[in-house]
């Protein structure tokens, strides 16, 4: 299955849920159809501290072909406030930045040419969070927000700074989304997770970042011939021209041999 | 990246497009979130004859861990009529069945325990095809349909028969869809390709087939601990219990070592 380059989406629930209807991960898989495999490694509720436990498992240094690109999308949980409902997810600002640096360094050690795209957390709609808590717990819902937009913004800034420092592409989701009036409800469905429109923003930004890093889908090779290039009477020609005679894998690829095998 | 089992979707455009909004492939990726990777190998316009050229490339006998499941979803192009616009895609009925048999045999040779799900082509809405052709070519559009529902039905029956013969699960999309009144427009967007509702039907049927074959997502292991199982003060405990001490891969997994490495 090692035919196509892989792009891995590493992150928290906003990555884990990216294959839900309208999700940015599924859209990316469609954008890179027959060009690259999009592999989702999203872990709902995780912060960067917990994600470090997975790093070597998901990205082993001695593994097979490393991915051509990885998105790192954490921060929404690191930015949870101390003393509030979800405080166990909190990671101090400096440690957050250090953890991200460790991830990037590890990935660059795995493959110096890997395109690593850092994605800052989206803004927080505190009213949306409150409504969501009430819809779940009614009047028992927590009175104090577990996240504020302002604090999440400080985490987003660390992302942006780190990306500049390490000279890698960065998507400042927190800032980009707030440029659109009504971002609170149009981009966030519960004050934190993305609506289809919000997913669209992330998808566009990721495509733009990958394009800028030399991984534009249009310039990547299609795996196997387009059907219009196949001659109905002599289909073998199109497949031979894909490297049958030179690949050394003649048994699998040449029609005259393939017919013996399949 | 070999942490999760893989499920491969092998087919024509109806598989290639399965990560578009509302697509059955993306929905499957979401259904198996953190349980299995859904790998799409769809090739628009391909029939089973052309697909055989790819078989050993996509599914090498000597490759790494084989997929746990593969869906084979061809027939919509094999069933194109001779003497019509797209006749180069036509594959005779008997050859179609033989080609599918070769695919299934190859996959079972690759891994006898692999769950192979055969998917019959969807029905054809001839009126929908004609409208679509007119929308593209106006009055120059072909007058005769390149596919008929009746002929596609004969291909679907070959699928069903072959699956019984080889004792593998089969989804008779052609019959299932026609049980719903108004299937022509509700399940097919151009008389051939799936609407979101049509994608929903395929998704449900694939999930049902996988459940029936012992691959229910609910019974598969989550990769890495759920966040609710992580102790904020001692996160290492949750990760150790995932096999740190027994995996032999201590460097990567144990926090005390991990901190040296990441």
Q: What's the gist of this structure?
A:
The structure is a homodimer of 262-residue chains. Chain A is α/β, with parallel strands linked by helices and 262 residues long.
Description:
- 2 copies of one chain form a homodimer.
- Chain A is built from 12 helices and 5 strands.
- The C terminus of chain A is likely disordered.
- The two termini of chain A are 18 Å apart.
- In chain A, helix 4 links the parallel strand 3 and strand 4.
- The first copy, chain A, is globular, with a radius of gyration of 22 Å.
- By secondary structure, chain A is an alpha/beta fold.
- The interface between A and B is large, with 66 and 66 residues.
- Chains A, B: Belongs to the 'GDSL' lipolytic enzyme family.
- Chains A, B: This is GDSL esterase/lipase.
- Chains A, B: One of its GO terms (molecular function) is hydrolase activity, acting on ester bonds.
The tally of helices of chain A reads 12
Largest sheet of chain A: 5 strands, parallel
CATH homology superfamily name of the largest domain in chain A: SGNH hydrolase
Percentage of residues in strands of chain A: 5-15%
Oligomer: homodimer
Mean pLDDT of chain A: 90
Largest interface: A-B, 66 and 66 residues
Helix percent band of chain A = 40-55%
Low-confidence stretches of chain A: 243-262
What is the gyration radius of chain A calculated from CA atoms?
Answer: 22 Å
CATH topology label of the largest domain in chain A:
Rossmann fold
Class of the largest domain in chain A in CATH? Alpha Beta
- Output the helix-strand order of chain A: EHHEHEHEHHEHHHHHH
- The CATH architecture term of the largest domain in chain A is 3-Layer(aba) Sandwich
Distance between the termini of chain A: 18 Å
- Total of domains of chain A: 2
The tally of strands of chain A reads 5
Q: Structural class, from helix and strand content of chain A?
A: alpha/beta
Strand order of the largest sheet of chain A: 2-1-3-4-5
> So what's the overall shape of chain A?
globular
């Amino acid at each position: 299955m090692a035919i196509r380059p892989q792009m891995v989406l590493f992150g928290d629930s906003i990555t884990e849920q990216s294959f839900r209807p309208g999700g940015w991960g599924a859209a990316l898989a469609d954008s890179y159809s027959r060009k690259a495999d999009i592999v989702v490694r999203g872990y709902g509720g995780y912060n960067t501290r917990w994600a470090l436990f997975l790093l070597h498992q998901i990205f082993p240094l001695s593994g097979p072909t490393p991915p051509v690109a990885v998105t790192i999308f954490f921060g929404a949980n690191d930015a949870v406030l101390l003393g509030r409902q979800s405080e166990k997810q909190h990671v101090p600002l400096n440690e957050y930045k250090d953890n991200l640096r460790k991830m990037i360094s590890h990935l660059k050690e795995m493959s110096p040419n890997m395109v690593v795209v850092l994605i800052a957390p989206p803004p927080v709609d505190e009213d949306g969070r409150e409504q969501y808590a009430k819809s779940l717990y009614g009047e028992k819902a927590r009175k104090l927000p577990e996240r504020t937009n302002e604090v999440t913004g400080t985490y987003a800034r660390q992302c942006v700074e780190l990306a500049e420092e390490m000279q890698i592409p960065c998507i400042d989701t927190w800032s980009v989304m707030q440029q659109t009036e009504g971002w609170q409800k149009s981009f966030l469905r519960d004050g934190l997770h993305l609506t289809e429109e919000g997913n669209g923003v992330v998808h566009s930004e990721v495509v733009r970042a990958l394009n800028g890093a030399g991984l534009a889908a249009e310039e990547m090779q299609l795996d196997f011939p387009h059907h219009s290039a196949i001659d109905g009477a002599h289909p073998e020609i199109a497949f031979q021209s894909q490297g049958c005679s030179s690949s050394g894998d003649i048994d699998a690829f040449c029609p005259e041999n393939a017919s013996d095998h399949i």
